[in-house]
Amino acid sequence: MSRTAAMTIKEEPGEVARLLSYVVLLAVSFGLFLEAHTIPTSRFEILGAGAFPMLVHGTLITLLVIAIAGSVRRIPGDAYGRVSAQIMDWIRARRLVFAVFSFLAIYLWFMPVVGYPIATFAFLAVLQITLAPKTRKSAAIAITLALIFSFGLNWLFAEVFNVFLPRGL
After folding, report:
1. How confident is the model at residue 142 (pLDDT cuts 50, 70, 90)?
2. Around Cβ 152, how many Cβ atoms within 10 Å?
3. How far apart, in Å, are the Cα atoms of 81 and each of 14, 88, 151?
4. What is d(CA 32, CA 35) in angstroms, rounded to the nearest whole number?
5. pLDDT above 50: residue 7
6. Who's near 9: CB < 8 A, 6+ residues apart?
7. 1-10, 85-94, 135-144: which has the highest mean pLDDT?
8. 47-58 pLDDT, tens per residue?
9. SS3 annotation, the chain
10. Are 13 and 80 in contact (CB under 8 A)?
11. How many alpha carbons lie under 13 Å from residue 27 in its C-beta half-sphere?
12. How far is CA 124 from CA 115, 136, 166, 167, in A?
């Protein structure tokens, strides 16, 4: 087996995952394109309020279709069967990425309930303490940064910019 073939077999799970992410992003972009089409227009606008989002998502749709075609062409036909056996190793190697996205999903779910400052403080503190070295100094730095970027930014936006971040129920 040549070096190129071995590299290809080793990279197949990542390429299949990339293809799946392209498909998911294509579906999201298509949905947002349709949503932007429903934005009401005023009589003073020639293009309408949804023109720019439709342009952005139309461009994304075009680029994603091109990326999907290139990815499908690059992946060998028998790779999908091999990937199913390697998928758990691929997920295990990227467990921190999945942890960050899980924390982000929980953060976005809790923000409307508890408000920006508390949700952001919890998100940043848990994420930094999880990813940082396990020392007292790094934990103190993580808590300090979480306080600054949650309550400090909330104060800055409210007092300086007069923009109020979500307060929660």
Report:
1. very high
2. 13
3. 14, 13, 49
4. 5
5. no
6. 79, 82
7. 135-144
8. 788 889 999 999
9. CCHHHHHHHHHHHHHHHHHHHHHHHHHHHHHHHHHHHCCCCCCCCCCCCCHHHHHHHHHHHHHHHHHHHHHHHHCCCCHHHHHHHHHHHHHHHCHHHHHHHHHHHHHHHHHHHHCHHHHHHHHHHHHHHHHCCCCHHHHHHHHHHHHHHHHHHHHHHHHHHCCCCCCCC
10. no
11. 5
12. 14, 16, 17, 17
d(CA 15, CA 95): 17
Share of the chain above pLDDT 70, in %: 94
Task: Find, among 120, 164, 169, the residue nearest to 145 by Cα.
Answer: 120
Q: Which residues contact 131 (CB under 8 A, 6 or more apart)?
A: 96, 100
**What is the C-alpha separation between 101 and 95, in angstroms, rounded?**
10
> Which structure tokens are listed for 161?
């910019």
Query: Is residue 37 a contact partner of residue 47, using CB atoms and an 8 Å limit?
Result: no
d(CA 93, CA 26): 26
